[in-house]
Amino acid sequence: MASVPPFDEAEARRRRMARAEAMQMARARRWERRKANVATRLTRGGIAFLATVAALTAYGWMSDGMGIGLFLLSLLIVPLSGIAGFALPVGGPDVDKMDEAAPAELPAITEAWLERQRRHLPRLAAPHLDGISVQLAALERQLARVPADHPVAQDIGRLLGKHLPELIDRYTRIPPMQRANIVEHDGRTPEATVIDGLKAVEAELTRASATLAEADRDGLRVQGKFLEARYGEGQRV
Predict the structure, then answer these.
(1) For residue range 126-184, what is the model confidence (pLDDT) as tens digits?
(2) Are the C-beta atoms of 189 and 171 separated by less than 8 Å?
(3) Is 94:109 a contact under the CB 8 Å cutoff?
(4) How is the chain split among helix, strand and coil, in percent rounded to 5?
(5) What superkingdom heads the lineage (predicted)?
(6) For the chain, what are the domain ranges?
(7) What is the SS3 assignment for 91?
């Protein structure tokens, strides 16, 4: 009979702390994106408002007065221009071309896409979505430094561009009343299946990030040993 490994309380506590930190970082990133979105909308609305006022002022000056009709119309046009500038969607990554994007572009595209899908997914999936968001932030910088044909970059391209969208798309096509109530042949509900799938994606992204950072970790270790040997206590005069 196989022995059960002893419970490591310190390791469990470390994992809980890492999970809490990942969730906090993910929430901070979402908050920063929302603030940037609102700031962009306010700036654009203000520019549209001022441009409309300037255009109407110039027209009134050139035509020696705008008349009561145009004046009343301007009372409607000016605020509407500001509202329209604020209401129009802010540009971002093209989430409709995930399967065509280069691996280095996929983390940003995937994060924007997942933010839209979050409300369709189970509440229990939130920690894994936060963990994926944190890993995507790290991979965005790492993938920018490796060629597109790097094996890890290719794996991430398939995972983010094909397999992850297919997982969520298949889940969202299931009627909501069936997602938590119907138990499949493997003993899991659709909700449990998609949560386990997101957990696997998070784990794979963590592994890929660690693999991409391996050369840097090795370089740091070698550099640290060199500095210790060159400038350590034993080398001082």
Answers:
(1) 989 988 988 998 899 999 999 989 999 999 999 999 999 999 999 999 999 999 888 88
(2) no
(3) yes
(4) 80, 0, 20
(5) Bacteria
(6) 9-87, 95-223
(7) coil
